Amino acid sequence: MMDKTLFELPGMRGALALLGLGTLAKAACIVVMSLALGALLTGLWEGGALAGLMGLVVAFLAGFLGQQAVTAVEDARLSSWAQGQTARLRRSLLERVFDTRGRLVRDEGTAAVTSGALEGMDQIDNYLRTILPKMVEVVVVPLACLVAAACFDGLSAAILAVSFPVIIFFMILIGNEARDRAEAQFGVYQRMSNHFIDTLRGIDTLAAFGAAKSYEDTVWRVSERFRVATMGTLKVATLSGAVLDLIATLGVAAVAVMLGFRLVDGSVSLLTGLTCLVLAPEFYKPVRAFASDFHASLDGKTALAHVMALVAAPAPASYTHLDVYKGQGKAVAGCSPAGAA
Predict the structure, then answer these.
(1) How many CB atoms are located within 10 Å of the residue 201 CB?
(2) Are the C-beta atoms of residues 163 and 251 closer than 8 Å to each other?
(3) N or C: which end of the chain has fewer CB within 10 A?
(4) Which residue, 25, 80, 280, 77, is CA-closest to 164?
(5) The whole model's pTM is what?
């Protein structure tokens, strides 16, 4: 879901560096919480007093509070950066509209440019807030959990390592289909928006010629095409989320089953089993979070590409429309009656 268009935004590398450091800190907190929780439950199971295990409780709380603090700082900084980027893109889009002397609105349609400056900016803002931390977490957190699990149990780490490429494969496979459908849906949305604006502008003319009633069918057909395109995109996005969630659930179940068998025969300790069992859901958690925001990311990605294309629209020639009209007026004024005839 992350494309090269994002790297054209100012401050993108700094934002990624900040997210990378923050995600590493959160991954460390997750590992600390998993280890502390596994050791705490093992100690309680073996009959240890809670007072003697307070250090593990403090370690778990420290990891939890540290993760929440890092998340709060990341959200605040990323929110400020995303708002700055959307404000810059909106300003650039409006400047391009005036620089092209209205030609951009004429070529793309009033509704397309307006929706890009209003609704499109909200989608871009949501996209920047969502996709960057999710993509960094998908890379960093599973790797940290995998290393921690490998230190305790090689088989559990192998199960996690084998399942992750499968998840990536389905993410790419379904993501490409969802991307194509989202782009097609956006095109239908633009046509519907432009058609709606044109209808409002010409409603008096339609009413004057008695064509307003018959035009209802045209409006319905355009709206129905957008509904069908939207439902098709939602189906693919929902399918992608369900597939990724299913693979993650099966991965956690496989780790739990294998740990259960080996706990029974005594080949692994309770501490190892509990720690790996806590790490397994954390390994797949970024994938689940990514799947839950998949459709919002698609809308934001398409909106960003559209706005960037509008901003990059070429400027017209140096003359203005007023100059053209003046030139035509001079030509008409210089014509002789015979020539006019």
Answers:
(1) 10
(2) yes
(3) C
(4) 280
(5) 0.73
